[in-house]
Design goal:
By secondary structure, the protein is of the alpha+beta class. The chain is built from 13 helices and four strands. α9 runs antiparallel to α10 and α12 crosses α13. The radius of gyration is 24 Å and the shape is elongated.
């Protein structure tokens, strides 16, 4: 993921409210109309707040006058940026936007630069004992305690037995928590069984979509369970390791790169560009793309369940994902 950051200061003849109105109502739509020509996949306007609190925050570091806003533009990667902005359509779109910017932005005092993700950490609520998602043998799982067979309702028992007797061979991962709602557990396990075992994707690629999702949610148990399956399905260790460390892998096939770009973009921007979509359709067909979306969505639910339930890793297993 490549992100352009533009720290904006207004032209001296404009008030902040006048600047932000024009930026929002005139320039923003102009950018949106040119996103495809620029190859960009996301545009964000961050407008500076006003008032005593904003003034106090601005003065707390003793720095220069605050910006009037910050614009962010996203591309899937550097190659996408260079290709699109170097095309005739991209150059024309960029020139048009710059001409408009000069009417309300003081360009000489508004730094602009390109960035890429370097360090990212999600802060979760304090988990106390078991914070590292391990079971140390002495501390029981605090959330959704394991259901004893004798405590299951008849509806829970039927779902339990169907899961245990299916291709999973046991009731693990999210299902102890999901069994609190038997119908939810039943619908989820049926959808999950289809997505794991019956899609048009080869195992290496379906498991790749799953571990990309696990990495996006830092779902340690999900990664632990599926990185091994990805490896057994033929996904190279180099790709698995790169995903674990939030690096773009070196791919061996077009299908690997198309799937990685699609899934990563979907998780990070909550959508995909036309370019990314069309590339995925060429690689997998519309059926395959629909199934990739299903894999990402289903395993987000699994990751949420595992993280909320704080499902521990087996004894002696260290959390596999760096945070």
């Amino acid at each position: 993921m490549l992100k352009l950051i533009f720290c904006l200061r207004r032209q001296p003849h404009l008030s902040r409210s006048e600047f932000q109105r024009y930026w929002r109502e005139d320039h923003g739509p102009r950018v949106a109309e040119r996103m495809q020509a620029l190859g960009a996949i996301r545009y964000v306007q961050l407008r500076a707040l006003e008032g005593p609190l904003a003034d106090a925050v601005a003065a707390s570091r003793g720095g220069p006058e605050p910006y009037d806003g910050v614009a962010e533009v996203y591309w899937p990667d550097l190659d996408s940026f260079l290709t699109a902005t170097g095309s005739s359509a991209g150059r024309a779109a960029g020139a048009d936007l710059m001409a408009d910017e000069q009417s309300f932005i003081d360009l000489a005092r508004s730094p602009i630069f390109l960035t890429e993700p370097h360090f990212e950490r999600d802060v979760l609520p304090d988990r106390g004992a078991g914070d590292d998602n391990r079971n140390d043998g002495d501390t029981p799982m605090k959330r959704f305690p394991p259901l004893a067979p004798e405590d299951l309702t008849e509806e829970q028992r039927q779902v339990f037995e169907e899961i245990a007797g299916g291709p999973r061979g046991g009731v693990r991962g999210p299902f102890n928590a999901l069994l609190r709602s038997p119908k939810l557990a039943d619908r989820a396990q049926r959808l999950g069984a289809f997505l794991r075992y019956e899609t048009s994707l080869p195992p290496a690629l379906s498991e790749m979509a799953i571990i990309i999702t696990a990495r996006a949610w830092t779902a340690q148990y999900e990664w632990y369970a599926h990185a091994r399956l990805a490896r057994e399905g033929g996904l190279p260790d180099s790709i698995i390791d790169a995903i674990a460390h939030r690096r773009r892998p070196e791919f061996e096939t077009e299908e690997q790169e198309a799937l990685y770009t699609f899934c990563t973009e979907l998780h990070e921007t909550h959508g995909v560009s036309d370019q990314t979509y069309e590339r995925a359709v060429r690689a997998f067909g519309e059926r395959g793309v629909a199934e990739i979306i299903g894999l990402c969505g289903y395993y987000v639910m699994v990751a949420m369940t595992l993280n909320v339930a704080q499902v521990p890793l087996p004894d002696g297993i260290e959390p596999p994902l760096p945070v």
